[in-house]
Design brief:
The protein is mainly alpha-helical. The protein has one helix at residues 24-35.
Amino acid sequence: MHTEFAFGTGRTPEDSRLKAFLRPEEVAEAVVFALAQPPHARVFLVGMRPMVEPL
């Protein structure tokens, strides 16, 4: 994910790979989606990967 949490542990703000990482807002949208489902629906798993990451 594109955050500052791993800076100093191998990742730097200049890391070109960060452009392809998911942003916190994008993950938050998935959480809101899961929570917005009707009471009779269950969301068991939401999987997200950036499109540049291989399956």
